[in-house]
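protien #1 (seq + structre)
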Amino acid sequence: MKSCVLLVCDAGYVGHAIALVRQIRRTEPDGEFDIVLASPEANSLQMPDDGPILLPIQVDAFITALPMNSRLKHYTYWRLPAIEKACQIYDRVLYLDIDIYCAAPGIGALMSIDMQGKTLAAVLDVQQQYRPRRIREFAGMTPETAPYFNAGVLLIDANRWRDEDISRKIEGLCNTDADRLYCHDQSLLNLCFFRNWLELSPVWNWQFSKKNALISMQAGPRLIHYEGSQKIWDQDADRLAYSHWLSFDPDRALQIRERNWDQRAAINRQFFVSGLYYRRKTISFLRRFPHDMATFSHI
């Protein structure tokens, strides 16, 4: 089975993507999968010798017309044509946002799991993990609370993606449901795979926050997703694990970091108090998965 890890970015984020590539290769040096970087700008990007395979993509006009905001620009939709093109080449595609830290090996094993006839596997959005809530995107589709995944990590059966012509379905949703795309392409993918996806253990998309910071090391996440405003590449990221911050760029060890210790102590108190409250909720959710490769099917 031919498989790849798929990253997507523009020229401004290439350095961050390369850092993630190196993390993956450091944790899984014998991984039998390609690492691919897709971009409309791929033909003009310069890659180091240990860089990813470049995959040029074309962004259709209907994508550039979709909703966006000050934080999520139109390039957040680029994963859609990138996945489509990767699915023409590979049998399994693991899409990763570039604000992810690869904490432990296992990607190769994840790619070979039984997907139980599902096209897509993902991790429940962290807000859904703590308490079921109504999803705005699903209004009118169901009177019940429906599962909603985070799109930062997506495992895709490429053969089924092609056979089901998922890209055409997505384009159709863009034409009929653009007003539902509150979280942009994440909303779009959740609408496309409504109640028809395979749930992965949260260790594969550990959506880091003050709520789960206290339990993070105990849970043993494999891929840590820094989806908030502070990213692993930020120069002063006091809320992030220092070892993760340092791994992004080893030269940071030589830098002098000026800290406001009063502010840092307040941050630590906030993490501790919030973490105690959410620790039990997180452990309860983790018990749904007896091991890291366990899955839960949504019908």
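ok now protien #2
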Amino acid sequence: MKRIISTIALSMALAAPVFAQSYAVTNGRVVTNTEAGIIDSGTVLLRDGTIVGVGSNVTIPPGTTVIDAHGGWITPGIFVPWADLGLIEVQLEGSTVDANANESPFSVALDVADGFNPASTHIPPNRIAGITRAAIFPSTGWNIFAGRGGLADTSGGADSLFETGSFVVADLSESGASTAGGSRSAAWTYLDAAFADARGYPGRFSGDHEGDALSRYDAAALVPVVRGRVPLVMYLDRAADIRRALRFQAENAPLQLIIVGGAEAWMVTDELVAANVPVLIDPIRNLPASFDRIGSTLENAQRLNDAGVTVAYTTQSADGYFNARLLTQHAGNAVAHGVPWDAAFRAITLTPAEIYGVGDRFGALASGYVGDVVVWDGDPLETMSAPTAVLVNGEPTSMTTRETELRDRYINITDDTPFAYRR
């Protein structure tokens, strides 16, 4: 019996290298997002989807597939903290929109996991732009709650939505006030009542009784938020509304709060730092497009960073279902307006991962982290730079999309028709 067990163990040991998949991304400027900083000429070694070595003197084992950066940049994959990738194909075609449900009787219980499409045509163009992870957001419908969001990778695999029920989204801005009945007091009263329903679940719903604001199904979905296990993400721009949200958090401990928008967040930096509340902002939202955003400024990112507020960047001024790929450009604009390069890059990689509680797995190049690695032909925050290779979960992904195929098909076509017939 012992001989049989020994034989099996030996067979497994001999078979292991055959099934192990190793890659070495080398000869590039490695941005680690760790205390190691930036390694001018380094290597990232990956095995079976996980980073196992980072440095300037990493030994590359025999049989490892080498990806040469040719002197470019090697970075963690970009982590988008706000997007609706995989939920919308054509915004104006309702049958392809699963981001919201205006006619559903449910709100908090709505879950992006039920509508997310990993095969969406918009995912590959974002992936080849360096996007490897994204927080997938639902949109609000008939009340202030949009539903539950999740975290996804951009591999296109069936299991790419790797975490569900990660947060609940609510709109307490001017649009939320309109939805709730026409004023901010109506929106906050509704939120208070919803929290009371969730705190009283399930006892409050005995028999045929429903909650003051929520059905029993929505109340059950809000329970993890009320108990502090899942963050509540609030859309807020106005400084006064942010202060109200911080007061709501203090009154409803152990509530975790994340703010999206934050156009006037620079006015309340001390309060945000004291409450340890992160803010997701778009660094190029600088126009006073509404009375909520009169204090908008291109210096918002710099002021928040200098004050020590936890900040991640979004592309809120663009369409999140296909233009998340502009995130590096938005981060570059933050640098142009005073944010240090390393802080801006962190705000689109490691910081979003930390905000959503997965910063020990994603957003950095260090041993034990998941192998999301991007090779760039130049500074990733420069508009003219682009990825030359993208690895998701330690596997190289295709750099071909429908757009690149159309480009290659038509780039060299010569139009010989008379000028009057050309379009």
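The chain is about 25% helix and 20% strand.
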